[in-house]
Amino acid sequence: MARFIINRALQTLPMLLLVAILAFALSNASSGDVAEITLRTQGIEVTPSILAATREAMGLNRPLHVQFWNWLRKAARLDFGISYQSRKPVSDEIALRFPATLRLSLAATLLSLIYSVPIAVLAARYKDSALDQAVRVATTGGVVIPDFWLGLMLLYLFGVYLKIVPVITGSENRYILLPAFTLSVTYGSTYIRILRANLIELKSAGFIRAARARGLGETAALVRHGLRNAVLPLATLLGINFGRLLGGQIACETVFSWNGIGKFAIESIRLKDLPVIQAYLLVVALTYIAINLILDVIYMFIDPKIRVGRETS
Amino acid sequence: MALSKNGSAPGGGAAPAPLLRLGLLAALLALLGACGGGETSPPAAGQAGDGGGGGPAGQAAAGGEKELVVAVVRDGALDEMDAASYNGPLFLFKMIYEGLVEDGGGGKIIPVLAESWDISGDGRTYTFHLRDGVKFSDGTPFNAEAVIFNLKRWVGDEMFSSLSSYEIEDMQAVDPLTVRVTFKRGDYSLLIEQSYPRPVRFLSPASVEQDPGNPKGRFTGPVGTGPWMVETYVKEEGYTLVPNPHYWGERPKIDRLRFKVVSDAQARVMALRSGEVDIIGGELVGKIPIESIPELMADPEFEVHTKDTLCSHLLAFNNDAGKFGDRRLRLAVSLAIDKKAITESLFDGIGEVADGLFQRGVPYATPQNNHGYPGDPERARALLDELGYVDADGDGVRERGGERLELNFTLSAAEFPEWKPLGEFIQSQLSQVGIKVNLNILDRNGYLETTQRSRKFDIALIRTPNDSWMPHSALPELFQPYPDPGRPARLWTDPAIMEMVRTTLATIDPDERQRNYDKLLGFISDTVIAVPVYFPIASMAVNPRRVRNFVMGVNNFAPVEWSLLEVSADD
Question: Of A95, A110, A272, which has the smallest distance from its Cβ to B445's Cβ?
Fold first, then answer.
């Protein structure tokens, strides 16, 4: 078990290096002169001498591989340097915003589960009924709806029209419901569709029929015996989506004034704040890798087949 | 309606029974949740002292204090807002710090910390007579010594080398209330530069880490002589300003101004509508989307205030390869575009019609030297015919010598979202006279790269500077090689224009200076160096049930007469 985890963790090292190289290369390759953009953003009228001095001060005159090596050495110690824009340590900037994104991601994930499970069960139980049809239409809409639009509409309805929540959430937990719901809609709709399809497939499975034969009602049979099996294929998707959410959600964060990592990352990309972009990409990649690892471990716990398969091969 | 309940999802452990079966998910979430545990609450409202964090609908400040709330687009970086730096929003500089002089509007310079000044004949030596009895908001006296201390913090710093006052030959505290400064260059803009939001503003010497004899010590906090001082600052959330108890002039009428960060432009409008903020808008505070302005104007619940700016949006020609060398082609492009329709139809009357290179309020620009060309597609067609551009194959696009009259039109919607519809409008107008336009809409960096470095465009939308920088700072910016000598200028490369710009800026005598400007601006207008397409205006909206005596300020970095603001009595 421990060996498995250590092995898996070691396997991720080359992956991380690759991500580091890509993060560094891509952020450097994007259009625009870093020194010039940094100066301009601060409102400095750029002259050739300022530009030269700034390049020197930022270490941009050194060969790219030297810059990369210097950066990597520091990054390995979680020192991502100083943000060009805010002139504060990048790790502080990320630490300031990541908790808000984490809270929002957790809330959105939980919320999507809270409504998608019962809705999927009902839709599967009453397949082809009016309810099922309505769910199908709603989930199709839910998948394609742009979250900034939905967010603005909800904000208008609950913030301006009904005045029951503030328009400016200030990243506060008590106002997390609207942004979390906005974020959850796309994911929740997918979960409902997958769960519903899985449950319908299971309806004819032997153990469900057996449960029914033991006198369980249709719904009870589905919930008590079907759900566990139907939900397993969802776990991977859930993990990946959670990772995606942790990368930040620019539209939702902007609309709801939620001070998360997404807004910060996009702004940094816009302003070519290389230390921030590189750190952000690394952190996102790390999160994905960690989630995958955790998922693998959890699978091993709950599914002996995987454990045995891994250990013998 | 379940949504109306304020439940905190991650904390709410009471999961429905079926969920317990999802051990997998619960484990996953719990594990990840643990990583973030303990640091979930941001340093939010708690620090604000009076807890005026969230509640909807114009929560009155505690204890009957008169407070107004303003939506601002981004963080203020107040912990780094050194008077001699580029950190922090421009509009705050003027509220917290003061200069020797200020922009009085209409090209007038008015006394502030200097009550009067004498200028030597060669325009290089300025003797400032300081106002007596002025104190910084921390009680430190303001005097000649403090002026010199502040000047030493930035003079000679490369970052300010675009200013004429960057190079100082000599500065002296003649007596406690007299400062004499001799600049190296005697440009007429020296006094205007003293009114810029930065760097010629004054920070309390006590606000710099004590290191005797070293004015360049570490900055510890924004303390100035201005009417306002910082009360609280929460990074990325907002900040509050309160009146400076030591202020020498008329004190603000309210007890607190609360600035809340709302990055989304639509959300700012909604926050005004919901009553959470009282004031929105301002180019540098947090713009109102252009499409929301008519909507707010029509709403009796709100008051919209507008003011002309000094900024022009121009269509620039890339003449690096001599493509636009013929004035008639440039004139045809200009005549093809109906500037009146842009302001009146496309933008619902929000803005001014671009009837010259510069807006009316720009110093030295007169109706004679600064004229434009109203839309006249018939004449545009005739000019193109005259130039030999004809549509022989009947595809709607003119050609000459087998080459189609097709232009790459580069722009970015990053700074002005309205440039996208503006670009499309210009595209359609040019197509009506037989010029095919291919729109190339880029992000901010790609746009700067294309228009200033690679220069792979035929025509591009650009804007001039604004406010106190017009026109003396705009002209070098538009016509001097960029970024190095030998490179094309940003707008148009012509040694004759460059020479005229240099001469004009160095002219001390006001009448002669006006004559030089007449020559320069007249030449630019006559030769159709660029096509002015739109003159933006500044706009702000307020909730009149809360805000009284709202007066817009002289420029974008002084967008509101903050000190005059009052809270409505019926609130």
Answer: A272
Q: Which residue of A lies nearest to B469 if distances are taken between CA atoms?
A: A45
Give the best residue of B21, B74, B165, B236 to mutate against chain A (max A CB count within 10 A).
Answer: B236
Structure tokens at A8: 């898996």
- Minimal Cβ distance to A103: which of B40, B161, B443: B40
Lookup result for tokens 């009428």: B253
CA distance B534 to B76: 30
Q: How far is A122 from chain B (nearest CA, A)?
A: 13
What are the structural domains, with CATH classification, of chain A?
1-85+271-313 (no CATH), 97-262 (1.10.3720.10)
Q: Is the peptide bond before B483 cis (omega within 30 degrees of 0)?
A: yes
The tens digit of pLDDT for each residue in B313-369 reads 999 999 998 889 999 999 999 999 999 999 999 999 999 999 999 998 999 999 999
pLDDT in tens, B243-268: 999 999 999 999 999 999 999 999 99
CB atoms within 10 A of CB B345: 11
State pLDDT tens for residues A253-280: 999 999 999 999 998 988 889 999 999 9
Q: What is the pTM (predicted TM-score) of this model?
A: 0.86
pLDDT digits (tens, 9 = 90+) for B493-552: 999 999 999 999 989 899 999 999 999 999 999 999 999 999 999 999 999 999 999 999
Pairing relationship of beta strands B547-548 and B114-119 according to DSSP bridges: unpaired
Strand partners, B228: B243
Is residue B369 helix, strand or coil? coil
DSSP code per residue over A131-193: HHHHHHHHHHHHHHS-HHHHHHHHIIIIIIIS-SS-S--TT-GGG-HHHHHHHHHHHHHHHHH
How far A257 CA lies from chain B's nearest CA (Å)? 6
What are residue B412's DSSP bridge partners?
B442
Q: Which of B178, B153, B163 is nearest to B100 (CA)?
A: B178
User: Dmax of chain A from CA atoms?
Assistant: 85
| CA dihedral over A262, A263, A269, A273, signed as positive or negative | negative
CA-angle at B380, arms to B376 and B386, nearest 5°: 150
Residue B301, helix vs strand vs coil: coil
Nearest to B529 by CA among B489, B499, B471: B489
Q: How many Å separate Cα A49 from the centre of its chain?
A: 43
Give the three-state DSSP class for A311: helix
Work out the pLDDT band at B29, boundaries 50, 70, 90: very low
DSSP string, B58-116: TPPPGGG--EEEEEESS---GGG--TTSS-S-HHHHHHH---SEEEEETTEEEESSEEE
> Residue A298 and residue B24: Cβ atoms within 8 Å?
yes
**Across all residues in chain B, what is the average pLDDT?**
87
CB contacts of A255 in chain B (<8 Å) are: 264, 266-267
ipTM for this model: 0.86
What the block records as the tokens of A228 is 């566990």
Closest-approach residue (CA) in chain B for A178 = B3
Helical H runs in B301-443? 327-336, 339-341, 377-386, 419-431
Taking the C-alpha atoms of residue A220 and residue A214, their distance in angstroms, rounded to an integer, is: 11
Place of tokens 């051990």: B23
Buried-exposed string A217-247: b where 16+ CB fall within 10 A, e elsewhere: eeeebbbebbbeebbeebbeebbebbbbbbb
Tokens read off for B41 = 């609450």
All residues of chain A having their beta carbon less than 8 Å from the beta carbon of residue B11 are 173
Residues in B touching A49 (Cβ below 8 Å): 158, 161
pLDDT of residue B185: 84
